[in-house]
Design goal:
By secondary structure, the protein is mostly helical. The chain is built from nine helices and no strands. Helices cover 73% and strands 0% of the residues.
């Protein structure tokens, strides 16, 4: 007979496995990029440079998280699982919109319509999960690192949704979403992004990418050139002053 303690241990094991699959998927994406870049033309022709990306690992992680959510009675475990699911969905969306080595400047011709639909649905689902979590929380301690990380994850999801609108040609909607994303990072910055960099450097990378993508949008928009310059300036300042503390500023980390 399965006891309550056994169920809790199984749920913790599931969350741990899903987190490992999230990280493993990121590692596989990096390896895929490195192998492809270093392969000779002959190796590419023979398929020797083909390496699976992270999507298979992220899908497996999603299955585990959904299993935990269907069985848990713990509010804390449910919140952890939902945040992890949102992270997995964001990674899936990011890998389509911004594969490693890609520029932040994208247009509809760069992302096939079917892939854009998948990416858009993934980041929208992530944002919906986070919005529902936010609306059900009865008490917030804004200075707690976990709350700050939650705000940064919301900003990440908003930035990805904005990128989908950018690619689809809806600049006005994209601008509003990018600004909402930056507002989330602003809420986090005083207590999290710059004071607890070692806690989760991914947040700084998300912030950096949001600045760059918003700047690229403004750069292509009439009478927004000054805004673009300001955003690019903030991005460079962030990289110079903080990103070195988070393990470097190589664009390869944009996969997360």
């Amino acid at each position: 007979e399965c006891t309550h303690d056994d169920e809790s241990k199984n749920e913790i094991a599931g969350i741990t496995a899903a987190q490992a699959l999230l990280n493993y998927g990121i590692a596989k994406s990096v390896i895929s990029f490195v192998v492809e870049q270093s392969a000779t033309p002959e190796e590419r022709d023979d398929g020797l440079s083909d390496v699976d990306d992270g999507n298979d690992s992220w899908r497996k992680g999603m299955e585990i998280v959904d299993s935990v959510l269907s069985s848990t009675t713990s509010p804390t475990m449910s919140t952890l699982a939902k945040c992890l699911k949102a992270s997995l969905l964001c990674s899936m969306s990011q890998s389509i919109l911004f594969p490693i080595g890609a520029e932040n400047k994208l247009s509809a011709k760069d992302v096939p319509e079917k892939q854009l639909t998948v990416a858009s649905q993934s980041c929208r689902d992530a944002l919906q999960i986070l919005d529902e979590l936010n609306s059900t929380q009865t008490e917030h301690h804004s200075d707690h690192p976990h709350v700050q990380q939650f705000d940064a994850l919301v900003g990440h999801a908003l930035s990805l949704v904005a990128s989908c609108y950018t690619i689809a040609g809806s600049a006005v909607t994209a601008q509003g979403l990018f600004q909402s994303a930056l507002d989330k990072y602003s809420e986090s910055s005083d207590n999290f992004l710059f004071k607890n960099i070692d806690y989760n450097p991914y947040s700084l990378m998300w912030y950096r990418d949001t600045l760059g993508r918003y700047a690229s949008l403004c750069q292509q928009w009439e009478k927004r050139e000054r805004k673009a310059e300001t955003l690019f300036g903030k991005q460079k300042e962030l990289e110079k002053e903080h990103m070195s503390k988070a393990g470097g500023i190589n664009p390869i980390f944009s996969v997360v």
